[in-house]
What we know:
It is a single chain. The chain is of the alpha/beta class and 406 residues long. It has two domains: 3-202 and 326-405, 3-Layer(aba) Sandwich (Aminopeptidase), CATH 3.40.630.10; 204-324, Alpha-Beta Plaits (2-Layer Sandwich). 32% of the residues lie in helices and 26% in strands. The chain has helices at 3-11, 13-24, 39-51, 128-143, 168-174, 228-240, 242-245, 294-312, 334-347, 362-367, 391-405, and strands at residues 57-63, 71-79, 83-93, 113-115, 118-120, 150-157, 184-187, 197-202, 204-213, 217-218, 260-266, 275-276, 279-288, 315-324, 352-356, 371-374, 388-390. The strands form five sheets. It has a six-stranded mixed beta sheet, with helices on both faces. A four-stranded antiparallel beta sheet has the order 11-13-9-14. A hairpin with a 2-residue loop joins β4 and β5. α9 (334-347) packs across α11. The longest helix is centred in the last third of the chain and has 19 residues, at 294-312. The N and C termini lie close together (11 Å). The structure holds zinc ion (ZN). The site of zinc ion (ZN) has 6 residues, from loops.
Amino acid sequence: MNKEICKYIDEHESVFVELESLLSSIPAISPLSGGEGEYKKAHALEEWLRKQGYTDFQYINAPDEKAYKGVRPSLILTIPGKKQDRSFWIMSHVDVVPPGDLKLWDTDPYTVVVKDGKLYGRGVEDNQHGITASVMAALALKNAGIQPEYTVKLLFVADEEIGSVYGLQYILKEHPDLFGKDDYALVPDSGCSTGDEIEIAEKNMLWLKVHTKGVQCHASRPDLGKNAFVAASALVLKLAELQDYFKSFQDNLFNPPYSTFAPTKKEANIPNVNTIPGDDVFYLDCRILPTADMDKIMEEIHSRCQKVEKEYGVQIELETVVDGVSKKSNPESPIIKRLITVLKDVSGRDAKLVGIGGGTVAAYLRNIGMNVAVWSTIDETCHMPNEYTWIKNLQNDAKVMAHLMI
Ligand SMILES: [Zn+2]
């Protein structure tokens, strides 16, 4: 453990608070959620970093006419390493979600309040925890006069909260050469309060829209129609059975360790009580283990639909709404092994590798072949009123990131 780095981070608590306060004071909300985008916040961050002596910045501006200045900027700060044949990326996102009902907040969401060792405010955890920890890690190295081993790239992306279309997806599409084949990344945008879980894999996400077509008629003569709602209800139960059907295929990296199949959203059918609905739409949210046999799963889904079609005389159409495949990071790759070592060294933590059911932005990087660790020490208050993060966790995570850089 490098004492000078740790000392700098321990002694500069006020700078963590300063940067978090600046970032929270400029809401970067997607135009789709009624905001103006990331322009002002990204540029304020750049200005702050320039004051610390950094000069190597690159903007990637995704056009979005609904946003302030017509762009959704992602910002990259480059810190050259001793070796430049690969880069170590730390990716965090600039955008935040709206505060929601202000009555649920004890303080103003855009004014950071320090209380009992925590910082409160919209964005302080999601994802300014990642921004601030990575920036402070870089500053600690700079202060100690240490050049990173490999080139460090702090990537502050736009539009993570609403699908990354104007953020990482745009970057990968327009600048595919930005990422080298041996690059690796840390994404501090998910984690747990003990900070000992390193996420290396995600389940594949499959969202299906299930459209059942029957025959509409007067509710007093159900014999003349085909009730799409009843048929769809039968199908809901059959599809929910899939979870048990595939339960024996397990991967203990994940919790739960099996694929899940959850009927979720239900669209309205008819507005009145006295009509037999001829149309019904519901959705199925599947989170599938990366090792599962996808063909077998689709076959089981289709055969259940066919049974219901036959039994109820309806037609069923399936539409894939989201089909997110995520590669797994290699547990033996340098970023994962090094993070395990550093966590033990700096925090005394025994890390365990985990997979999650939810999708993160890391999937896009994993899918281009990069090894990515998703990790941070947070209480998971993101998107909640009174969002907070612990100053001690910010400092710990900055120390870990600094040691990953060297
Ligand atoms: Zn986030």
